[in-house]
Amino acid sequence: MKRESLPAQAATLVYAPSGTHVLADLSGIAAEKLSDCAALETLLRNAAEAAHAHVLFSHFHAFGEGQGVTGVVLLAESHITIHTWPERGFAAADIFMCGSAQPELALALIKKALQPQAAHVHTARRGPP
Amino acid sequence: MKRESLPAQAATLVYAPSGTHVLADLSGIAAEKLSDCAALETLLRNAAEAAHAHVLFSHFHAFGEGQGVTGVVLLAESHITIHTWPERGFAAADIFMCGSAQPELALALIKKALQPQAAHVHTARRGPP
After folding, report:
1. B124: part of which helix (H) or strand (E)?
2. Number of CB pairs < 8 Å for A and B?
3. Chain A residue numbers touching B117 (CB-CB < 8 A)
């Protein structure tokens, strides 16, 4: 687990509160891709970088051999999370980014790696009124 | 920071992948409530328990004295996150729970503690097709 990666720059970056939140329900994924905790952590950290976001911290939890994984990458720009159910070939990913980061680039990398047969993607704008 | 709280029961709980994701944009909050990292971590852990969810882990990051906080509580049922901007009186909270947990009870506790003047709440159903 890569628990701490707090470059001084990212740890103090402050962005405006308006952002984009992408909720991606990904189905038809090979089970082995959804139970590999280390690979999913590396994937989501790489996805953050692909989106030009700054990683503060990550933590991933495996529910057991061959079972699902739940994990988070905290960003200076907000977060990426994933929750997986290998027995259903399903992953729920969230990509929430403020500032100039581009969540669609993170999602593209996640989809390229997990190769879902179907993706239901919902995008919400967040921020103060 | 309460980094590890992995009761053996919660660490291995497995829920069906269908769930409810509540996105709450909360505005008009007193700045001092949004920069207190320890209080926000306690609040979100208590909110998880109020919703009958099982906490796996939490991590909260303060961007600096009087500045915002970004944090996550990973749950056996998915997650709660919060990102705050005290200078704008704004917090973006996410409550994503599968199984029989009740995210609306978590949101009620968060709103009671933060006392936002306005709340824009969007609820999405998540899960396989």
Report:
1. strand B118-126
2. 131
3. none
Give the tens place of pLDDT for each residue, B40-85.
999 999 999 999 999 999 999 999 999 999 999 999 999 999 999 9
Check residue B17 and report its DSSP letter. S
Q: In terms of CA atoms, which chain A residue is nearest residue B122? A: A124
In this predicted structure, the answer to whether residue B124 has a pLDDT above a threshold of 60 is yes
Any B CB within 8 A of A45 CB: no
Q: What angle do CA A9, A125, A41 make, to 5 degrees?
A: 50
Residue B83: closest CA among chain A residues belongs to which residue? A78
Whole-angstrom Cα distance, residue A36 to residue A72?
A: 14
Predicted pLDDT at B15 = 75
Write out B22-40 in H/E/C secondary structure.
Answer: EEEEEECCCHHHHCCHHHH
- Residue A22 is classified by DSSP as E
Task: Note the pTM of the prediction, 2 decimals.
Answer: 0.91
Q: According to the model, what pLDDT value does residue A2 have?
A: 46
- 0.95 surpassed by complex ipTM: no
Asked if A64 is an interface residue toward chain B (Cβ–Cβ < 8 A), one would say: yes
